Amino acid sequence: xxxxxxxxxxxxxxxxxxxxxxxxxxxxxxxxxxxxxxxxxxxxxxxxxxxxxxxxxxxxxxxxxxxxxxxxxxxxxxxxxxxxxxxxxxxxxxxxxxxxxxxxxxxxxxxxxxxxxxxxxxxxxxxxxxxxxxxxxxxxxxxxxxxxxxxxxxxxxxxxxxxxxxxxxxxxxxxxxxxxxxxxxxxxxxxxxxxxxxxxxxxxxxxxxxxxxxxxxxxxxxxxxxxxxxxxxxxxxxxxxxxxxxxxxxxxxxxxxxxxxxxxxxxxxxxxxxxxxxxxxxxxxxxxxxxxxxxxxxxxxxxxxxxxxxxxxxxxxxxxxxxxxxxxxxxxxxxxxxxxxxxxxxxxxxxxxxxxxxxxxxxxxxxxxxxxxxxxxxxxxxxxx
Length: 385
What we know:
By secondary structure, this protein is α/β, with parallel strands linked by helices.
């Protein structure tokens, strides 16, 4: 049983569940599905198989929505999607599924994922360069076999015999993916004097991978490329150029293809030029938080909720000056941080709008409180990058 999934949050290796706590703390109802076949799931994990990821995530969303309804929890209609690494692949797969099925997505951010399996990732396997994470190759093969059942009859059809005991041990759950990776690198260096990943593959299988686009493995990789579509929702693709596990060209290829297919609100950005895959997580997540907060709707009012729609903050996010406008009189405009501390306050008689300067305000998320001439209190969220 592989426990490095959100449902085992609190156990060793399952700390990614902390992202859910961050989301909840920022006002989101957050759900984090396990990868199929991990946690208490049956079988071996399907890894980068889009259809099972999509169905499992959709089932979890429907279960979440049912629970919210049954327990009287009110939410708005906004829906945000994000994920990192394998989760970046999963988030892009599910984003596509939702839009293909007519569900509106508020915003999505896909982070450092292997979106181009048949292109970027396949070329990495076939290259003559050493790869520090060769265990992803058997992980993909085992997962695809779980999904399709026709990639091989026996592991020896794909892998040289020296590597099979460790791969079988990983499949049986007696060693982790990290352990498998260490053992494969040691064997590659011992047998071939280098860490070139394709040296673990049988010559006949390697020839199929290189020359036959109709081979089961090449068809499976192509079917699970997840970037050949045009997202409608505002979308960010974040990556780090020094990524040593998932080449940044996955993000570049996805960006170019999606824009060619008509994606109008898409930005792809290198969030840290020198960060490797592990170090890229924090800057990518930070960029996602700022992006989502710019789209998140949090409004409260002591009056008719429709009055809140009359209050606008432009621009938001703000760097220096912003205009707070309202169809009426503003008698008080105060900026609070999320600890409830007053940061800026302006009082007086302002007709229709008030301009405030935030140049000395630290980066963060704030609440702007507007008190109208009628004494109605309205709160709006403001972001300072």
